[in-house]
Design a protein that fits this description.
The protein has two helices and no strands. Helix content is 55%, strand content 0%.
Length: 49
């Protein structure tokens, strides 16, 4: 049964929106590089640790 009780469009949107661990790490590095390039401190939260 597709959708598991959720509307199919919601399930498909979720599948498209979820990023993997390696994608998340690549985004974090990209963002950290941009922040550092602007001279801002690049501190991560305790939750992110």
């Amino acid at each position: 049964r597709r959708g598991l009780g959720y509307p199919l469009a919601i399930m498909e949107a979720h599948e498209q929106a979820v990023i993997s661990g390696p994608e998340r790490e690549a985004f974090r590095r990209l963002l950290e590089g941009q922040v550092t390039a602007e001279g801002l401190p690049a501190a991560s939260s305790g939750k992110a640790q």
